[in-house]
Amino acid sequence: MQRHQPTDAVRLNIADATALGERALRGAGFDPDEARTICAHLVDAACCGYPFAGLPRILTIAEDPRTHAPKTPVRIARETEVSALIDGGNHIGYCAVEHATRVAIDKARVSRFAVVGLYNSQLSGRNAYYVEMIARADLVGIHLASAWPVVAPLGGTRPMLGTNPFCIGFPSARGPVIFDMGTASMMRGELGLRARLGEALPEGVAIDAEGRPTRDAQAATAGSILPFGGHKGYGLSFTIQALGLLAGAALAHGRVQDYAFLFIAFDPGLLVPAERFKREVDELIAEVKATPRQSGVDEILIPSERAFRERERARREGIPVDREVYDALQALAARA
How many of the other CB atoms lie within 10 Å of CB of 76? Predict the structure, then answer.
């Protein structure tokens, strides 16, 4: 599916995008450290070619009632040498989930394996951002995220599941390899941006409140997003929602359909020598990329290769931001 790409846009270099984003987040009530953490994630998402997951998310964050709800300190509710269950204290996921990622990395470095769950948080951005941190620590990472329902089950007319992404990442001799995907036909952030800008949806990604197919983003917001790939996407989404319960999804508000974040991180050396694994992944990449190509195909890419190339290009050329979004961010930044 073709993601939204800004047309009437302001192009910002990375320094200016970061400065604007941090000011806007300060205007939304975040302290400087929080604003810095959130904005680093958002700018990286935009650099990797996901405009909806970039600076426009600040407007969603600012409008979300949970942003302004009371918070408590992030704390570990239950812990062993190889596990931790973390209460996010209603802090935004961009900060709380990064904290959980670092806990998983620290535990896996000591014990060579870790499983970490986080609940009582929301809005965490791209799973790939956190799993890349794990892979750059020379660990294998798996990350699942359940969410508040916006996706209808297969054959249903009401939202019962989150967009429920999952991500797998690991090191190779050439750097991290990351595969990140949502189990919905469209991510919630993409739907929100299209609704804000009045853009039509692709065919077959959403239904309205009556269960009828729609391309109207506002009608889809009142209705449901559909799972990707029929029963396959639905099955993945359901299992991720269920595994979110292991990460404490029902603990914060007593609902089995809520946000939770589950990490598994381990040292590949538990199974084969770590350096051998990295070399063999590199060999596998080379074999796959050498596959004879179909007509019109210039290159076979591996997961994360496109995003990493986009990131390097964006660091040189800057990122586009929809003008309407840019103006709204400037207004929000003025509050700071």
Answer: 13
Domains of the chain: 1-69+323-336 (1.10.1530), 71-183+232-271 (3.30.1370.60), 185-226 (3.30.60.50), 277-302 (no CATH)
Strand pairing partners for 179? Answer: 168
Q: How confident is the model at residue 1, as a pLDDT?
A: 55
For the full predicted model, state whether its pTM sits above 0.90. Answer: yes
| Mean pLDDT, all residues of the chain | 96
The answer for residues whose C-beta is within 8 angstroms of residue 257's C-beta and 6 or more apart is: 146, 148, 149, 160, 161, 162, 241, 249
Helix H or strand E segment including 332:
helix 323-334
Nearest in space to 47 (alpha carbons), one of 306, 298, 332: 306
The H helix count followed by the E strand count for the chain is 11, 11
Instruction: List b or e across 231-264, with b for residues whose CB sees 16 or more CB atoms inside 10 angstroms.
Output: eebbebbbebbebbbebbbebbeeeebbbbbbbb
Q: How far is CA 279 from CA 112, 143, 266, 285, 290, in A?
A: 20, 24, 18, 10, 17
Per-residue confidence (pLDDT) for residue 8, from 0 to 100: 82
**Distance between CA atoms of residues 129 and 169, nearest Å:** 10
